[in-house]
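Database export, one record per block. Field names are fixed; values are copied verbatim from the stored entry.
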Amino acid sequence: MICESVCADDGGREGKWVALLIAVILLIATILLPYHQTSTEQLALASHQISIQELEPQELAMIADLRLAHEEIRNIRQDSLELDGADSWPLISELEELWLAPFVKDKSWQHKGQHRWLNNDSGAYLGIRQQQQGSSSVVLYSLQALPDVWLDFGETARSVSIEGLTDPAALIGAGWKQVVFTAQEENHPH
């Protein structure tokens, strides 16, 4: 009788090939990954501009309210044009009656700095902070489809008149900062 011993195949050779294949795939992925990323370029901002990404949460909350209010203000103006034929911007009292933040005097208004709101007939709304806490003084221009928001991080807002808001150069000269909503462009690889 012939006895032959047979060694059991434990799959070691196949396991080494699988491990080598995984290592090659990971190496290729590591090398090619930087070429498959989205590149971002920072746009150069003027000295009187500030990116929305650089703002504190209290300013961001005020700007969020102003962006929504901007849409409502433009809708109210459009309605008055269509119904009455009058080209007038809504007054602060009208915005308060509509419970439109940040113009309404509620708990949020108190928390954000108790702004005293003024407006003129050119679509500019000035909110002057009355407390040290809360959001900075702010100007909202509603002339264009997109809101134009300016912040005053100093105390120059008390010296700005509502009539002086028709020229952004006056705000630049007084040290106000224009909020830029899109601070970067994304370039996707093709």
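Remark 1: The mean pLDDT is 82.
Remark 2: The two ends are 71 Å apart (CA to CA).
End of record.
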